[in-house]
Amino acid sequence: xxxxxxxxxNILRRYSLRNLPALTEIxxxxxxxxxxxxxxxxSHLVYFDIANNDINSINNQTFTSLRSLRxxxxxxxxxxxxxxxxxxxxxxxxIEDNPWLCDCDSLQQMYNWMIRTDQNVxxxxxxxxAKVEGLTWEEACYNTWSKVYIPxxxxxxxxxxxFITLGILLxxxxxxxxxxxxxxxxxxxxxxxxxxxxxxxxxxxQQTRERLRRLEEQEESRNAPDPRESQGxxxxxxxxxxxxxxxxxxxxxxxxxxxxxxxGSNQDISKRRRQRRKRRRKRSNSxxxxxxxxxxxNATDQSDNDRHTEMEESSF
Length: 316
Hints:
The protein is an alpha/beta fold and 316 residues long. Helices cover 51% and strands 6% of the residues. It has a domain at 148-209.
């Protein structure tokens, strides 16, 4: 790098840099140079700073020999016109603070190149003609360039913004849809789990009720009174009205010898009783004659005794 700033240099010749073949960067700002020679020799020069001098014009031969030139600073000079063909190899250009003559037709190509290469055009201000003095290139030439250049750039930016916005909206819609689907699946799963739990609880309640019902039925059947216990024994008059049994109940039946012995004993007892009755009657008739009233009472008592005797004999 060679820095010759503020050295009051007023002349730069074509061969001034010939003896510096490896030079890649030179700073000549704040000098008094008013003219740049054609075909300036510096084949490896990449960075050329010649700002704040008195240069009033350049042409398409000025930087032809500077094949490696990429950065050119011409700010703060006295340039009024410029063309992109003067420095085809340059990628970064600074030309603000020059008294530009804003002939919109002649500046169209330069403006187009600066927009295409993304240069700074906001600081480029007009000095001539007087009616546009102090205005930027875009402000002074808006009516001329708006039909061609500004709409092209605006359409490109609008298109890019539209597609970016559309992509963001589609992404948000996709994310929202996925979130809604996930939330819906979670709600359905929770609903299924609740239904399963409710069904299980219902089945358990039904089983519990069924067990309780069975236990109650068992308890009722266990505590229910025997219907035979509720029936008391027959009264004396009811017993007299009951039919006589021709034979004993099978549960009361015994063996034949026991039955024969019982029958024999019953016959003996009945005979003895009859004999006793007869004897009693004879004695009463012979010894103590009673009046008719007394005899009627004795007859009634005798009939009752005979009836009791018959019932006893039938029971045997």
